[in-house]
Structures are given as structure tokens and as C-alpha cells.
Amino acid sequence: MKKSILWLSALVITLSSCVKDAVETCPYNDSSATASAAEISALEDYFVTNSISPTRHPSGVYYMINRAGSGATPGVCNQINVKYSGYLLGSSTAFDSNTSATGAFFTLGTLIVGWQKGLSVLNTGGAITIYIPPTLGYGSNPVRNGNGDVVIPANAYLKFDIELLAIQ
């Protein structure tokens, strides 16, 4: 009987440490950030002016699914493999891109909230255009390149074309 209790206790401790490790491996939480009414209004004005009809996510990100995928959708703790191009809204010049055959790898939770919300509606193998208001992008923080030049100004509205190649 004592051996059974000892064995059962060891098994419970071992299994509970596995569960604890699995929970602790993901430090990211789904953000509850939302765009302001003024940001949403500015995006909607842009869409009307440019005859664009995207779908609004509850967060204030807007998106257009260009190709439906058939796999899973990513969560903030997933590593994603993507091809992408990023633009300041209204510009045709990309400030950043990776369209190589192998794409780029990121953990979704390390990216701006706009990507997290936009990609949450896309299945693996799909392609999407997301429109991101400043609050869900880089906010009041300008983004600089290695030379110190500003590539994304403070309070910028962003557009990304993204292809979700894989989720891990």
C-alpha cells in the first residue's frame, strides 16, 4: 500500500510539472487593446475615398481575406511562417517586406496587436490585407531603421499584405 501511494504521488508530481511547464512556455496574452473612435473614423473615410470594403474586427483592425486558407488559425503563442509587405496607408512603397520562398518566422505574440488580431481570422494557406490604426500598430513611437532614419512615423496607419504559410 505504501509503495502504491508513493508511486501515485510521484506520478502526480511528474504530471503536474509537465502541465506547469506547458503553461509557462507561453508568456503572451491576447491583447484587449482597441482602436479609438477617431482612428476608426479616419480608416472608414479612407475606405470610402478609395472604394475599399474591408471587414472590421472588434478591435478596430480592418481586413480583407484575399485567399481563404484551409488550415488552423494562429494564436499568440504560435510561431508563424509568413510572406508579407508593409506599407504606410496610402503609399505603394513598402517600408518592410519578406516575400522570399521561405518567408519569415515570428512568434505571433511578439508582433504588433494589429497583426495578432488580423491573423486570428486567417487560416493557414490564406492571404489577407490588414489595415491597422495607430493604437494597434506602433502608436506614438516612430520606428527607425539601422541608420536612425524614421521608416514608420509616430501615429501611422498601416497596411500589410500577408500570406500565412504555416503555423507551428
Structure description:
There is one protein chain. By secondary structure, this protein is α+β, with helices and mostly antiparallel strands. The chain has a single domain (31-167), classed as Chitinase A, domain 3. It contains three helices and nine strands, in the order H-H-E-E-E-E-E-H-E-E-E-E. Strands 1, 2, 3, 4, 5, 6 and 9 form a seven-stranded antiparallel sheet that branches. A hairpin with a 5-residue loop joins strand 1 and strand 2 (62-67).
Briefly summarize what is shown:
The protein contains three helices and nine strands, in the order H-H-E-E-E-E-E-H-E-E-E-E.
* CATH class type: Alpha Beta
Which fold name fills CATH's third level, the topology? Chitinase A, domain 3
> Using only CA atoms, what is the Rg?
20 Å
- Arithmetic mean pLDDT: 89
> What is the domain tally?
1
Into which percentage range does the β-strand content fall? 25-35%
Largest sheet entry: 7 strands, antiparallel
Indicate the overall shape: globular
Number of strands: 9
Question: Helical amount among residues, as a percent range?
Answer: 25-40%
Segments where pLDDT lies below 50 for 5+ residues? 1-20
Question: Keyphrases for this structure?
Answer:
single chain, 168 residues, alpha+beta, Chitinase A, domain 3, seven-stranded antiparallel β-sheet, two-stranded antiparallel ribbon, 26% helix, 29% strand, globular, disordered N terminus
